[in-house]
Amino acid sequence: MYFEKFDKKNNPEDKKIDLSWNNGLEKIFNYKYSYDYIYFRLIVKNKSGKIIHGDMYNLCSLVTLKKLLKLCSVDITSIYICDITSIYIGYLCYNGYINVLEWLKNSELKLKYDTHALDNASENGHVAVLEWWKHSGLELKYSENALNFASENGYIDVLEWWKHSGLELKYNEYALTCASENGHIDVLEWWKHSGLELKYDEYVLKRASLKGHINVLEWWKNSGLELKYSEWILNCASKDGHINVLELWKNSGLPLKYSEWTLDRASENGHINVLEWWKNSGLELKYDEEAIDGASQNGHINVLEWWKNSGLELKYSGDALWLASYDGHINVLEWWKNSGLPLKYDIVSEWLRDYELRLGYDKSKLLEYACMENPRIAETFTWWINSGLPI
């Protein structure tokens, strides 16, 4: 007899649990469930070898729980009863099953739980579960994650509950960081007016910038709170193509912090609109060889064309042709050959010579060996051999 899990869309999980031994039930309650998988069914093989699939049951149902206990011949009044583990309790709290919690509390079963109980209830917005724990008479175990996760997921009612609970409030910088990252202006407002200590660092603005949350950045700018930020904000906005974030910071009146990463990563990721923005911004342009090298590595011909026609100083190294060669970007190699720019390919020459030394300078063997090792490299070798360039 086996236990098989299903999610809400009736999709089975791969793993099955054998219930034929007396620890089968314990494995169910101690299984590390995904919160999507809340149903199960029993699978039985009869004497003729035929597989019989049973009905599906909700793992959090009280009726199901009692049936499982009966199925595995567990005597509720026995001292040898199966543990209800902290994993299962955390699962119940996440899904809001107060009736099962109440039944377990009043049963003879040994109840194990940890900080995940209250943390999970807070994470998923279950104020009623928090109330149940508060009045249960049981020891209350929780961590910073209770308030942090409630902030991350936008549960103002959970934050209010904790504030008025009379319990010690535990939280850290994660609360405001994730509220900012997820665009929860109402949560930021709640914290600002809560009268509680505001804990945050440069990550609040960095994460909001990474996600392109202009409204969050505007909120922080107008909040009257100290703004903590580093060069990573403009760097990451450039890397991810967020022109609106760049515009906001440019017009903010705040000191702008950024590094070569701005143009280097924009080039590497193919963001010509970002390159144009920086060129026309009137700001100091910071970049190095990684801009053109990275564009070559990732096959961005349009970026290479942009740099060639930009009128800016062209900075690149031997890595441009080497990385394009190794990643099989023949179109990039063709572009460089026809660009009229000085070609730097000492690294490529050394790479090819290394293969030739191993294979006795036999070009046919070179291609044969390359095909076996990596067909993409073989195509690159063919291009270089036929390029007419001295190698």
From TrEMBL:
<dbReference type="InterPro" id="IPR036770">
    <property type="entry name" value="Ankyrin_rpt-contain_sf"/>
</dbReference>
<dbReference type="InterPro" id="IPR052050">
    <property type="entry name" value="SecEffector_AnkRepeat"/>
</dbReference>
<protein>
    <recommendedName>
        <fullName>Ankyrin repeat protein</fullName>
    </recommendedName>
</protein>
